[in-house]
Amino acid sequence: MSLEYYVRNIFKKLKDDHFKILGIMESNLTRYEIVPPDVIRRQSGLGEKADKILSKLHEYKLIWAPRGLEHGYSLNYHGLDILALKFLVDRDVVESLGKPLGVGKEADVYDALSPKGERLAVKFYRIGRTSFRGYERARTSIADAHTYMVASIRSAAREYQALRRLHRHGIAVPRPIHRNRHVIVTEIFQGIELAQLQYLPDPENILRQILENMLKAVKAGVVHSDLSAYNVLVTPSGDILIIDWPQWVPPSHPMASNYIRRDVGNLLKFFRRKWDIRELPGDCVGLVEDLVGETFNNFTTKLGWKGA
After folding, report:
1. 196, 250: one domain
2. Choosing from 226, 244, 276, 283, which is the catalytic residue?
3. Which domain does 102 fall in, by range?
4. Does residue 226 have an active-site annotation?
5. Mean pLDDT for the chain?
6. Is 88 a domain residue?
7. Beta-strand relationship, 96-103 and 119-125
8. DSSP character string of 73-136
9. Pick from 63, 70, 68: which is nearest to 25 by CA?
10. Do 171 and 207 share a domain, yes or no?
């Protein structure tokens, strides 16, 4: 069932004790794969009443019993969603959740409203749809996460940290508003992935904006480390937004320069292939050189870029 179903049909049915049990399940994520019922009874202080609440939460599909009810329960993403939404509602960050704005491999983004009527974008991390082993290789900073949900919580925390710093330094990212658990709330943003665009009136200007923002981000202490045409949005006004920052590293990271060079190289290849950009304006050449730390000719020769 969808998140919209749980918000519409389940959320208002839950009482304080339901949230208390869900919170205990969450607090044991790194200790137990399956939380034994006696642990839940003891930690909640609810005794046998906890069993009835567990049964109801299981009925609502906010927890599950992978080895049978007698062995214990595990929190699932819907239960974690409900906990995060409860926090955001109680703190007057979010009042209502709307329709999905986008569904990705590792996260879903929803439209939402604040109590003041401000439109928001709410991002729910969903690590686990793709191979976790592959995720570990690509996301070394959270490779020790014990479960998908722990990895999702850490990813949201890292991305929110990056967004706050980047927005403060004027980099083209969505304005961050709040985070709780695996959920990030930002201002609403619109745009089409660069990779999906079939028409672009001034591709050189878009490339210039990307390179400028990459350099500003590095100076602010943030290297995206996985930048591509799929996480650059082109807005209706012709500007850009760079999204998806959970894998960022500081410039002091031993692989930071390699990540920068790889990302710049992939972007140049993309613009050459899709938009037939074979010669860059001087300011773009300078931005590339500042980012990769060598002359443009040397760098592009290594890319196999041999001129027009």
Report:
1. yes
2. 226
3. 93-187
4. yes
5. 92
6. no
7. unpaired
8. BEE-HHHHHHHHHHHHHHTTS-SEEEEEEEE-SSEEEEEEE-TTS-EEEEEEE-TTSS-HHHHH
9. 63
10. no
Domain count, the chain: 3
Count CB neighbours of 194 within 10 A: 24
Per-residue pLDDT tens over the stretch 48-85:
999 999 999 999 999 999 887 788 999 999 999 999 99
pLDDT at 125: 96
For the stretch 253-279, pLDDT in tens is: 999 999 999 999 999 999 999 999 988
Structure tokens at 203: 């591709």
- According to DSSP, the residues that pair with 35 across neighbouring strands are 73
Beta bridge partners of 120: 112, 187
What pLDDT, on the 0 to 100 scale, is given for residue 146? 62
pLDDT 10s digits, 174-216: 999 999 999 999 999 999 999 999 999 999 999 999 999 999 9
Rg (CA), the chain: 22
Is residue 235's pLDDT more than 60?
A: yes
Using CA atoms, how far apart are residues 120 and 109, in angstroms rounded to an integer? 10
Burial class for 174, CB neighbours closer than 10 Å (0-12, 13-18, 19+): buried
**Residue 102: φ, ψ to 5°:** -170, 145
32: domain CATH number is: 1.10.10.10
